[in-house]
Design goal:
Length: 82
């Protein structure tokens, strides 16, 4: 997946633990951990909104797009399936 989550960097900059963030945004520690490690397949806009509010950041600071060779293969497979 070409979408990268930079939550760990932002938490470090804010000197905030994942546990503290989980309490402030009312998301389970397990779900935030999945998001932080890049294993999440999706994020609700409401969760993204709460993260941005608590961390005082923009969505683009939490997420970045870093294309890879695998993305080109996935895109080709998606187009073939259409």
């Amino acid at each position: 997946m070409a979408i990268r989550v930079t939550l760990d960097r932002i938490l470090l900059d804010r000197r905030m633990s994942l546990t503290e963030l989980a309490a402030k945004v009312d998301v389970t520690l397990a779900n935030l951990s999945i998001l932080k490690t890049g294993k999440a397949k999706a994020i609700r806009f409401s969760t993204l909104n709460r993260l941005c509010r608590v961390l005082e950041c923009q969505p683009g600071e939490l997420l970045s797009y870093e294309p890879s060779e695998n993305d080109a293969l996935e895109e080709a497979a998606d187009q073939a399936a259409e």
